[in-house]
Amino acid sequence: MSNRTDTYALAYECCDTVLREDGRFPTIDAIRDRIGVNSPTVISRAIKDWTLHFANKHKETFERPDMPAVMLDTAVSLWQLALKEASKQFDEQRQQLEENARNDQALIVQLQQQLVDQQTQWDTERSQLSQHNEELRHTNAELATALAEARQSLSHTNAELASTREALSRAEGSLSTSKAALQAQESAWSHRFDQQHDWHLARIEEEKNAARQEHARTITALGRELEDFRLELATAQARITQLMQQLSDRHEHQLKWEADLATLRAQLAAREVELQAEKDKCRRLHELVRKQRRPAQNTPDKAAG
């Protein structure tokens, strides 16, 4: 199938070449010699299609013999180009319109969803308002009942207020009498308080004087005790100074004794060294004496033998 298609394309293109070079319509032999393929059926079909295309192409030339063929070809090319551009613009506009339609459809769906949501919200709010109105009606009924009860209670309260006012008037009379008695009692208590206050002030002054005298005596006694303590302190300080002097003297004597003791110890050590040397000399002398005695003892023994 691919070979036949290639043969058809070669034969179709070769038709223009034969017409341009030979100045005559193409034939099977001319095409076969040029493309080098022996396929009369395919070449014949290509020639027929090319002839039909050539006839359609130059049909308007035959109808308009006064217009050159070149201009017709140019016009056809321009028309085809215009058709392509128009088709391209139409496709672009159609795509834009389709895109706008899709966007509008999406917007419509969104608006419908918003409308549904808003309708749902309105239904909810309507239900809430209905419930709230029902609650308000119930509250109004309760308030009306409470108002009636309050009016009845107000009537009882007014009656009680009238009786209370009468009792208050009687109580005010009693209060005036009690107030007069209280003022008289307050005057008596004030006079008694002034007398007791004066007595207490005199008593406080006497106690203050006695306390001052006792304080003065206490200060005098403490002064004497302080003076005695100072004398004892001076005596103790003098005694401490004397003891410190004695301690210093004894410390000096002790240092002197320690120095003398160290000297004596050094002398004793030297004497011990000398004594040890004398002992060593004595030991050597004893050994020498023993050595000298041994030959003398051996000689008598030999003579006796």
TrEMBL record:
InterPro entries in the record: KfrA_DNA-bd_N
Domain called KfrA N-terminal DNA-binding: residue spans: 11-115
Keywords: Coiled coil
Bias kind Polar residues: ranges: 295-305
Presence of the UniProt keyword 4Fe-4S in the record: no
UniProt region (Disordered), positions on chain: 286-305
Pfam families for this protein: KfrA_N
Residues forming coiled coils: 80-167, 201-281
Keyword flag Coiled coil: yes
Protein name: KfrA N-terminal DNA-binding domain-containing protein
